[in-house]
Amino acid sequence: MSTYLIEREVPDAGRLLPEQLKSMSAASREVLNQMGPQIQWINSYVTDNKIYCVYNAPNEQMIREHAKTCGIPVGRILEIKAEISPATAD
């Protein structure tokens, strides 16, 4: 399984109300439950006009299938090759 960063174009994403974010999350989780444990949503970051999501999945196609099924836009999908943090310097 690989880890992916997904860039989603969502105009005014930073202005979405908590109820809207909850609804999007619920729709995503429902589809994930239907697709099975092969695909996992780790977390997401909301900016002004984009949402960046981190997923574990066997391939990019499964991420695109999830997005299409739940109606959430997907732009670029990048496979994460490594993770670093301040602790990496130690």
Map the helices and strands:
Layout: E1 2-9, H1 18-35, E2 40-46, E3 50-57, H2 60-70, E4 77-79
Question: Which labels suit this protein?
Answer:
alpha+beta, Alpha-Beta Plaits, 29% strand, four-stranded antiparallel β-sheet, 90 residues, globular
Task: Provide an overview of this structure.
It is a single chain. The chain has 90 residues and is α+β, with helices and mostly antiparallel strands. It has one domain (2-81): ORF SCO4226, nickel-binding ferredoxin-like monomer (Alpha-Beta Plaits), CATH 3.30.70.3090. The chain has 2 helices and 4 strands, in the order E-H-E-E-H-E. The chain has a 4-stranded antiparallel sheet.
Largest sheet: 4 strands, antiparallel
CATH architecture: 2-Layer Sandwich
Strand order of the largest sheet: 2-3-1-4
What does the overall shape look like? Answer: globular
Count the beta strands: 4
SSE pattern: EHEEHE
How many domains? The number is 1
Arithmetic mean of pLDDT: 95
Question: What percent of residues adopt helix (DSSP H or I)?
Answer: 25-40%
Distance between the termini: 28 Å
Helical stretch tally: 2
The CATH superfamily turns out to be: ORF SCO4226, nickel-binding ferredoxin-like monomer
Q: Classify the secondary structure makeup into a structural class.
A: alpha+beta
**Could you name the CATH topology?**
Alpha-Beta Plaits
User: What's the gyration radius in Å?
Assistant: 14 Å
Unreliable segments of 5+ consecutive residues: none
Portion in beta strands: 25-35%
Q: What is the CATH C-level name?
A: Alpha Beta
